[in-house]
Amino acid sequence: MVLPVPSDDVLPQPMLSPLTPAALFLVVTVAPGGEQAARGVLSGLAGLERAVGFSSPDGALGCVAGVGAEAWDRLFGTPRPTGLHPFRELDGPRHRAVSTPGDLLFHIRAARVDLCFALAAEIMRQLRGAAGVEDEVQAFAYFDSRNLLGFVDGTENPVGRVAADAVLVGDEDPDFRGGTYAVVQKYLHDVDSWEALAVEAQEKVIGRTKLTNLELDVPGSHVDVNTLIGPDGNEQRILRAAMPFGRPGHGEFGTYFIAYARDPEVPEAMLRKMFLGEPPTGHDPILDYSRAVTGTLFFVPSADFLRSIPNRPAPD
Ligand code: HEM
Question: Which residue's CA lies nearest to atom 38 of ligand 1?
Answer without folding.
Answer: 223
